[in-house]
Amino acid sequence: MTADELKALIAAQLPCEHIALEGDGRHWFATIVSPAFEGLRPIQRHQRVYATLGSKIHTDEVHALSMKTYTPAEWAQQAGG
């Protein structure tokens, strides 16, 4: 799976203002900014992202995905800080 394919998969089911991906095709690191993360704990945010992957994570097409998740306001603080 390419970064563009993974990005499209996540963005198709989760409204995202920003997605950055790095990886080797199986092991990925993502930075994701979404208003859908408002009011969610980090584990709940990660579960939302994993839900967008569906069977891809279970069939090992995406072996590992580590991520940082932000709301738009949190992201603005990161960028400005």
Q: Care to describe what's here?
A:
This protein is α+β, with helices and mostly antiparallel strands and 81 residues long. The protein has a single domain (3-68), classed as BolA-like (GMP Synthetase, Chain A, domain 3), CATH 3.30.300.90. Helices cover 44% and strands 25% of the residues. A hairpin with a 3-residue loop joins strand 1 (18-23) and strand 2. The chain starts with a helix and ends with a helix. It comes from Extensimonas vulgaris. It holds the Pfam family BolA. InterPro entries: BolA, BolA-like_sf, BolA/IbaG_stress_morph_reg. Belongs to the BolA/IbaG family.
- How many angstroms does the end-to-end distance come to? 34 Å
CATH superfamily: BolA-like
Mean pLDDT: 92
* Known CATH architecture: 2-Layer Sandwich
| Beta-strand content estimate | 15-25%
Total helical segments: 4
Query: Any idea how many domains?
Result: 1
Number of strands: 3
The string of secondary-structure elements, in order, is: HEEHHEH
Major beta-sheet overview:
3 strands, mixed
Q: Which runs of at least 5 residues are low in confidence (pLDDT < 50)?
A: none
Structural class: alpha+beta
Spatial sequence of strands, sheet with the most strands: 1-2-3
The top-level CATH class is Alpha Beta
Global shape: globular
Summarize the structure.
The protein is α+β, with helices and mostly antiparallel strands.
Features:
BolA/IbaG_stress_morph_reg, GMP Synthetase, Chain A, domain 3, alpha+beta, BolA, 81 residues, 3-stranded mixed beta sheet, Acid stress-induced BolA-like protein IbaG/YrbA
